[in-house]
Design goal:
The complex is a heterodimer. Chain A is of the alpha/beta class. Chain A has helices spanning 17-29, 41-50, 63-66, 70-83, 95-108, 216-225, 233-237, 268-274, 303-318; strands spanning 3-7, 10-11, 14-15, 31-37, 55-59, 86-92, 112-116, 118-122, 125-132, 137-143, 149-152, 167-170, 182-189, 203-207, 228-231, 258-262, 279-284, 297-300. Chain A is built from nine helices and 18 strands. In chain A, the strands form four sheets. Chain A has a seven-stranded parallel beta sheet, with helices on both faces. The longest helix of chain A is centred in the C-terminal third of the chain and has 16 residues, at 303-318. Chain B is an alpha/beta fold. Chain B has seven helices and 13 strands. In chain B, the strands form two sheets. A nine-stranded mixed beta sheet of chain B has the order 9-8-7-10-6-1-4-5-11, sandwiched between helices. A two-stranded antiparallel ribbon of chain B has the order 2-3. In chain B, α2 crosses α5 and α3 packs across α4. The relative contact order of chain B is 0.17. The chains are: A alpha/beta, B alpha/beta. At the A-B interface, α5, β7, β9, β10 and β13 of A face α3, α4, β7, β8 and β9 of B.
Chain lengths: 319, 259
């Protein structure tokens, strides 16, 4: 069977859940091979083996981290050339990965489909499912030329273990001068919140205009549930919460098991980021808020009363 | 400094967006407008030119009605427009669209900057800027929320989930901006009047030296094979808070095995 390349998402060799998800998907359409960029492949190998990577292609070249996007595309191209028979390239959806996939698509003259919710082997090739127009439509697409390049959203497939060899295959990379056009001259790491990552979390609790800038009840409830914290565009624009936590069309698209919208009216911009969540719950003072049209359960009330009470109830249930 | 801003005419997200029978986004029977995220690119281009000198050219690819996106940018203050319009382009995916844009940028001349927004509000892929940079062989400084241009180089701040990065490149470059970068202006009455006299060129594929087989359905490397409207979510129970709203909420979560 042809190889399916999976770009590994990791921090210093600690493999993220999305990589396990993508390796699981890869097994449906071919033989999974991981693509590891960085120097700590030994730390990553056990997890990659556990989820079925037969091979682990490794590119350890500082240029990939030092210059924006273009070298990553060249790295992926180098792996594709070395691997030979590649059925598809799966990449976890993120800002940088999507852009690298875009450049790779032009290099390989191959079709690119982004933000996949599902990837399946069909009779005539790989079929990719996406949503469109703020979750209002489901699309099925195929790649008609070249090697399918697919960026897959996190949280779409439960990871299933399947032990494999994870044989390390080093790949040489010389980054072209053209790809070194945009240099990353400074990196300021953000303070870690200690909470799960927004796009990977099973539960997301989000706050909006109704918080009035005080996110403590939202954070309190999120922490009781072990959830990630999100924010509406209104809250981010007001400077109440960082943009990296924004859920919506111009922020993150999340599909957790449970989404709790607190003081969020539910404008189309927000719905585009959370409408595919499995269960939606809302707390809002305004019973006319459009968010209530989407909910599985809603409370019309003040989040400053409802959330602390709910937080206590969760804590009691857990103790 | 001469800047080309790439913009898209999209269906209004507030209206009922839909697909045509051939699975393309319906851009003609639905209220449309300049993609909101492209306004930030237009604004940034205007600010850069106003701080120095040069011209802002607005470029779009799309059906006849798409010229409205160009006109909006001209009302905001851009100097001239280019509209690539050809029936054969209908059905182009991101890759084919980036090819048309690349050829058009080359024909406009050698701009110092090619500016784009973060993503279109209809396709939302956020990949055309990177494809365009690849095709034009330009340094890519995208998804930036802060931008400065000085002494022939560009510097931007790009925020990821884990870090805030400073990215630097020499001109010419392709720059993509987020909605965090500025506050787009509303067209002034003067701007609206002035826009009427601003030139908008309409180019066909042959003007760009492209063949119909390189674009549209035929020239695209992906195909949408099925489109279905998702059933609206069924509205669940909504209760007023009578002092026990939090408890009831958690009861629901327990019942649904979510806690």
């Amino acid at each position: 069977m042809a190889e399916v390349l999976v770009l590994v998402d990791h921090t210093d060799g600690a493999v993220k859940k999305t990589s396990a998800e993508l390796l699981t998907i890869a097994r449906r359409i071919g033989t999974p091979s991981a693509v590891f960029i960085g120097s700590q492949v030994e730390a990553a190998r056990p997890r990659l083996a556990q989820f079925g990577a037969e091979k682990v292609y490794v590119i350890d070249n500082a240029d990939v981290a030092d210059y924006l996007v273009a070298p990553l595309a060249e790295a992926l191209e180098a792996v594709v050339k070395q691997a030979g028979d590649v059925a598809a390239i799966l990449v976890p959806t993120s800002g940088t990965n999507k852009e690298a996939a875009a450049r790779l698509a032009v290099k390989l003259e191959s079709g690119l489909i982004t933000d996949a919710q599902d990837v399946q082997a069909g009779d005539d090739g790989i079929v990719v499912t996406q949503t469109a127009f703020a979750g209002g439509y489901t699309l099925q697409g195929v790649v008609t030329q070249g090697t399918p390049i697919i960026t897959v959203k996190p949280n779409t497939t439960p990871p299933q273990a399947s032990q494999a060899g994870a044989q390390v295959v080093p790949v040489e990379l010389t980054v072209s001068d053209t790809a070194k056009g945009a240099k990353i001259t400074e990196v300021q790491e953000k303070k870690k919140s200690g909470r799960p990552e927004l796009t990977e979390a099973a539960i997301v609790v989000s706050g909006g205009r109704g918080t009035g800038g005080d996110f403590s009840p939202v954070e309190g409830f999120a922490d009781a549930l072990g959830a990630a914290v999100g924010a509406s565009r209104a809250a981010v624009d007001a400077g109440w919460y960082p943009h990296s936590n924004q859920v919506g069309q111009t922020g993150k698209q999340v599909s957790p098991q449970l989404y709790v919208a607190c003081g969020i009216s539910g404008a189309i911009q927000h719905r585009a980021g959370m409408q595919t969540s499995k269960t939606i719950v809302a707390v809002n003072k305004d019973e006319e808020a459009p968010i209530f049209e989407l909910v599985d359960f809603g409370i019309v009330g003040d989040l400053f009363n409802v959330l602390p009470q709910a937080t206590e109830a969760v804590k009691q249930a857990k103790s | 400094m001469n800047i080309v801003v790439c913009v898209k005419y999209v269906p209004d997200a507030q209206s009922d967006r839909t697909f045509s029978d051939d699975h393309t986004t319906d851009r003609t029977n639905v209220d449309g407008l300049l993609s909101e995220l492209d306004e930030y690119a237009v604004e940034e281009a205007l600010k850069l030119v106003e701080a120095g000198e040069g011209e802002v050219t607005v470029l779009t690819v799309g059906p006849e009605v798409a010229v409205e996106a160009v006109k909006k940018a001209l009302k905001m203050g851009a100097h001239k427009g280019v509209h690539v319009c050809d029936d054969a382009i209908h059905g182009s995916d991101a890759g084919a669209t980036s090819l048309v844009l690349a050829k058009a940028v080359e024909k406009i001349g050698k701009p110092d900057l090619v500016l784009t927004g973060l993503a279109s509000t209809d396709g939302t892929m956020s990949v055309v800027p990177a494809m365009l940079a690849e095709r034009l062989g330009l340094p890519q400084v995208t998804q930036v929320s802060e931008l400065s241009v000085a002494d022939g180089s560009v510097k931007g701040r790009r925020d990821t989930d884990i870090a805030s990065e400073t990215v630097e490149a020499s001109l010419p470059a392709l720059v993509g901006v987020t909605d965090q970068i500025n506050e787009p202006r509303y067209p002034s009455l003067k701007g609206i009047m002035a826009a009427k006299k601003k030139p908008v060129e309409t180019w066909s594929l042959s003007d760009l030296g492209l063949d119909a087989a390189q674009v549209g359905f035929e020239g695209s490397w992906t195909k949408v094979v099925d489109v279905t409207q998702r059933p609206a979510r069924e509205k669940g129970e909504v209760q007023p808070d009578e002092g026990d709203g939090g408890t009831k909420l958690v009861e629901f979560l327990n019942k649904s095995k979510l806690v």
